[in-house]
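Let's sit down with a protein and look at its sequence and fold side by side. Which protein we use is up to you, so please pick one and set it down. Label the sequence line and the structure token line clearly, so we can match residues to local backbone shapes. Go ahead whenever you are ready, and we will take it from there:

***
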Amino acid sequence: MEGTGGGFRKDLVSKLLQLHFTNSKTKVGGDALRLMAELLTIFVVEAAVRSVRQAQAEDLALVDVDQLEKVLPQLLLDF
């Protein structure tokens, strides 16, 4: 995540998208990259918040991957 903006870099988002395209000639426009970067940022922040809430519900001081695994199914359904 970038500095104070707190988002994903466009080149990273572009690379992630390119890895999943079946046609190597597929292009992604700048607006689509910004939108996808914003969606990824929202997804990651929401995953972190839900993981913290899960850890608090379990009376834990630290968030572990176990809490993320517990909230991930519902998070994916919500997105």
Notes: The chain is about 65% helix and 0% strand. The chain has one domain: 10-78. Residues 33 and 75 are 22 Å apart (CA to CA).
